[in-house]
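quick one
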Amino acid sequence: MSDGKPYGICILGATGTIGVNTLDVIARHPNQYHVVALSANSSVEKLLQQCLDVNPQYAVMVDENAAEQLEHHLKVGGCATQVLSGKQALEEIVVLPEVDYVMAAIVGAAGLLPNLAAAKAGKRVMLANKESLVMSGKLFMDAIHDNRDKGAELLPIDSEHNAIFQSMPPLVEGQQQKAGVTKILLTASGGPFRTWDIGALKDVTPEQAVAHPNWVMGQKISVDSATMMNKGLEVIEACWLFDVPEDQIQVVIHPQSMIHSMVSYTDGSVLAQLGNPDMRTPIAYALGYPKRIDSGVSQLDIFDVARLDFEKPDFERYRCLQLAYDAHRIGGYATIALNAANEMAVDAFLNKRISFTTIPLVIENALEQAPTGTPEKIDDILAQDLSSRDQSKRYISGL
Ligand code: NAD
Ligand code: MG
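structure w/ magnesium ion:
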């Protein structure tokens, strides 16, 4: 839209941390944004409240029983939102003509198909769901490029990638060398166990792993941050988003999480983006781009920051980070196996079926079994995802 009407927004994963923060930013700009559709997996109460608050045209609940309950409660509450259910409905809401921007904030592989559908329909895709890009890098980037004339755009929500995007000159896509970019410095907090004795990591509990020192996030990404698989997925995400090889990405442990990433240039300059660790900043940047809009985040008080520390990552402590670099170097099916096995391992860890230090072993097993080569079609990607999940399930049951 550009004729004064508000932009139509669809939020995939509305009830999650990113979804809730997105609604918070949108509520600050009622004349600029209008929520057309919301989705969630099965949290009836949360999605119900969101529908009552913003009155979207559509709400998708993937789980059918939950959808029935939501429909009932909405009727009782006098809300006219139409309820749809099933995975397919996610692809239906993103392509609606009233939708201009899609917040891709489902966690895990489940986001892949709706995100691709949004790209193909020429929407502004605000990508939080890094797992989908790790699985389908080339296919997803091609879908964005091939549909640019229809309006397709990709704006990173991950705070690091948003910071890199802000620290690069505009329109350098695929031209980083010409723009003088020499390196991307991807910052990481190091998670809650950065200073723990390595020998004690085997006894880490799910409760300890989800307690992130600087960010409030969903359970899966919190565990990924503790193993640093989150940073590994982000290395792969950055390679695709910014079209650079993995050896041009240096992970930097920066425990204060104030610098969200940096870009080094050939003239010796290093540009960084700083801010309080609050996802509403990257969300507001993607919603407003190329303008800047209020996000509700308090201004960084540089005198409060006091000090900024930087360390190199220890690959023995963070084996998952090494596995992600290796998988991207191999490419193709390996990154699909990496992601699928990680999702299975994190789920097993959260359900107390495996220890924290078994997570990388599950991933190694899936990587060993992954075929070489690169998938050409989405069906090949989905088939590999399923087969790596099966292999991981068997590996976990055999432990
Ligand atoms: P979350 O667990 O808080 O929320 C996940 C959302 O996805 C929920 O709305 C849930 O209903 C929905 N969902 C879960 N499984 C689904 C399925 N099978 N089908 C459809 N919907 C499903 O997660 P989050 O922390 O908001 O993270 C969402 C995504 O954003 C992840 O990919 C994460 O890596 C990424 N991300 C999050 C943060 C953060 O600060 N939380 C930062 C950067 C990137
Ligand atoms: Mg991040």
